[in-house]
Design goal:
The protein is an alpha+beta fold. Helix content is 23%, strand content 34%.
């Protein structure tokens, strides 16, 4: 449904490093950067797959509160790897990998807070 989305971060370089490491196990890479000169406002970094950025982070004034994003994982081990990578990159635990049966019986997810307190999730919907 969404073509792409983005958030504002307080330290673009730090967040770019964090997301590069946290999203790598999901096959999501930094695929594009635009400078403040190019946009006429703030610099941005786009992460995605197949050369198409779908998740953008940018410098600038931060919105009033944290946001939540869930990234698709191909497997439960990918969710586990995301969680480990995100914590190693400086994220804070917000829910270790596991089944979340209140969503559905196969909802396997992990939650980590990014450097700005945003709740990022990796989720796999496949059974065991």
């Amino acid at each position: 449904m969404l073509e792409h989305t983005g958030i504002t971060v307080t330290d673009l370089d730090h967040s770019k490093t964090f997301y590069g490491k946290a999203l790598a196990p999901l096959g999501i890479d930094l695929v594009m950067e635009v400078t403040a000169e190019q946009t006429g406002a703030e610099a941005h970094a786009g992460f995605g797959t197949g050369g198409k950025p779908s998740f953008w982070i940018g410098s600038g004034p931060r919105p009033s509160g944290p946001v939540h994003f869930a990234f698709s994982a191909a497997s439960r081990p990918d969710v586990d790897a995301f969680y480990r990578s995100a914590l190693a990159a400086g994220g804070k635990d917000n829910g270790p990998p596991g089944i979340r049966p209140h969503f559905h019986a196969s909802y396997y997810a992990a939650f980590v807070l990014d450097p700005d307190g945003n709740n990022i999730e990796a989720v796999c919907h496949k059974p065991g």
